[in-house]
Amino acid sequence: MHLYKLLDYFFLVFHLLLVLFVLTGWIWRRTRPWHLAAVLLTLASWFILGIKYGIGYCPLTDWHFQVLRNLGETNLPNSYISYIILRFLGLEVAQNTVDIITVLAAIFALIASLTSKYYHKPGATNSRSHRDHP
Hints:
Blueprint: H1 2-24, H2 32-53, H3 59-70, H4 80-89, H5 95-115
């Protein structure tokens, strides 16, 4: 039982950090290439693996939910985001609402990643030099 509790915390922390990275990794220049890879892998999981396992499929969610079932959890929601909202806030949000917000956030993350500048040329500076400021 202790192993399952450790696995629960591992998946909780790792998956939450991954979700946060997918939402915000485009902000920092150094993480932008990794961010694009994370977003593309997430979307591939949802829509390519989703062909076989159901649209929105995530292996991390699947594995975490298996751990939770071994810990005696029942009536788990259909998505990890719904589970996080329920676990931390105690709120049951309509699944369609969660799905729409999740997909919109992923689309935003993809657009942000694709429109960000990925590479910084050595010696290049911002278009406004420090002399332009009073």
